[in-house]
Amino acid sequence: QVQLVESGGGLVQAGGSLRLSCAASGRTFSLRSFGTYAMGWFRQAPGKEREFVGGINWSGDMTYYVDSVKGRFTISRDNAKKTAYLQMNSLKPEDTAVYYCAANPTNAYADERGFTSWGQGTRVTVSS
């Protein structure tokens, strides 16, 4: 099975930064390389539907971002460490949400429908 564990959430003031990590483990990643999964980040704010924040391809050289985070958020990955990251800068109160990482067994990093394995989420709160 695929296990994804997010970390790095917390409380930050508007304008601040946070870096989320997503560590992959489990039988699936011992049988198939982490580097053959596209990785993505989603978020869900209170009372709202889950939103696709962005994704990164297998090799880490291509990324996609939703318009609301372009220029502020950066997704990266370290395949040797089986970890994906979400660097969030210039945070706004509207970025407050539970953030989830997800794995896509194809390289369709910009297609939110392809993400089939999820972490438990980490909470990010941005105060004004």
Structure in words:
It contains 1 helix and 11 strands; from the N terminus they run E-E-E-H-E-E-E-E-E-E-E-E. With 128 residues, the protein is mainly beta. The strands form 2 sheets. Strands 2, 4, 5, 6, 9, 10 and 11 form a 7-stranded mixed sheet that branches. A 4-stranded antiparallel sheet has the order 1-3-8-7. The chain starts with a strand and ends with a strand. The relative contact order is 0.30. The model has no long low-confidence stretch (mean pLDDT 94).
Explain the layout of strands and helices:
Blueprint: E1 3-7, E2 10-13, E3 18-25, H1 27-31, E4 38-44, E5 51-56, E6 63-65, E7 73-78, E8 83-88, E9 97-104, E10 117-118, E11 122-127
Parallel strand pairs: 2-11
Antiparallel strand pairs: 1-3, 3-8, 4-5, 4-9, 5-6, 7-8, 9-10, 9-11
Count of alpha and pi helical runs = 1
Content of β-strand:
over 45%
Low-confidence stretches: none
- Report the structural category: mainly beta
Order of helices and strands: EEEHEEEEEEEE
Radius of gyration based on Cα positions: 14 Å
Q: What's the main sheet like?
A: 7 strands, mixed
Distance, first to last CA: 40 Å
Number of strands: 11
Helical content class? under 10%
Identify the overall geometry: globular
What's the average pLDDT?
94
